[in-house]
């Protein structure tokens, strides 16, 4: 049996999504900018996808700019800040942290808020920081490593009170939580197709004020001048279809996923009481489990599990080639060792109970093997 428990890194394309994409590789291959019926057909499909993506997060279609990845979207927002202070957190995705490094090198000051042992943000610290003024707050909604949720509704109110624009990295939240961009005072939101059973190569920067952003890529004026380059029509169509299914099925998917994730955690904790689940008592997205295994190296556990047919991860996929253990677990626990001993499991509604049981047994077997060979 091969079991994929790494859905926070990426997801398979839903068969129904693929079916909707296929014509746009073939008969409907037009360039959306062309002034003939082939072009018009592609342009119409993009607008349909824009409507579906906007509906997923309760935004307006004209607030959606398609781009190639959420990394691009996050880079675009942060690149727009040329002076002042950007406030973020120590547990962001590399797309944010590395964009913030660039911002620092152009003279922007960056304040990273810490989190407590449960991964929770201190809203009073946010308020105190904003009293000194800021050009942007950028925070993720659901942490990709632990699933812990930041209280974005409260963050949005605080940012509004200090008149500071808020960008939310909702990559792991979209399709797993109900998101109301229209209601909350969130200026910019980034989401990604391949995390919600759509294809890679499509993402969205959703903005209440897109003219405040400088496009990263200039050229042919696509996406109303906000993101040049011929659109990846099949991927955008797939993103739209994936968003449509995610919205329709959000509740039922999350019921399944929560049951599977909790079953995995309960089995592991019952059979190995020395394990530690990071952020277990915090509000979390339903699919993610970050587990620290005392005495076991996380990288060794991931490769042993891979040999047993289980796909899991240490930290985020973007950092999986790095030898540095998770900055998220270090920020939560202050412990390099605990970070090194942590593995993330992320389930989806496509997993089954049998798979989760097989995975739990394999994880226990693998940790015993690694402990006995240490
Ligand atoms: N933000 C978070 C929280 C993520 O988990 C990821 C991907 O892992 C990204 C941003 C980057 O998304 P993309 O792969 O679309 O560039």
What report would you give on this structure?
With 374 residues, the chain is of the alpha/beta class. It has helices at 15-21, 37-56, 70-79, 94-105, 123-131, 152-161, 233-271, 298-307, 327-333, 336-340, 353-373, and strands spanning 3-4, 64-67, 85-89, 109-113, 136-140, 166-169, 188-192, 203-207, 276-278, 288-292, 310-311, 342-346. The strands form three sheets. It has a seven-stranded mixed sheet with strand order 2-8-7-6-5-3-4, sandwiched between helices. The structure holds pyridoxal-5'-phosphate (PLP). The site of pyridoxal-5'-phosphate has 15 residues, from α3. Residues 8, 69-71, 93, 95, 140, 144, 169, 171-172, 192, 203, 316-317 line the site of pyridoxal-5'-phosphate.
Q: Which strand order does the major sheet show?
A: 2-8-7-6-5-3-4
Backbone CA Rg: 21 Å
Looking at how many chains there are and whether they match, the oligomeric state comes to single chain
Mean pLDDT value? 96
Helicity range = 40-55%
Category by helix and strand content: alpha/beta
Distance between the termini: 27 Å
Proportion of residues in extended strands: 5-15%
List the bound ligands: pyridoxal-5'-phosphate
What order do the SSEs take from the amino end to the carboxyl end, as H and E?
A: EHHEHEHEHEHEEEHEEHEHHEH
Number of strands: 12
Query: If helices are DSSP runs of H or I spanning 4 or more residues, what is the number of helices?
Result: 11
Low-pLDDT runs: none
Basic shape: globular
Main β-sheet description: 7 strands, mixed
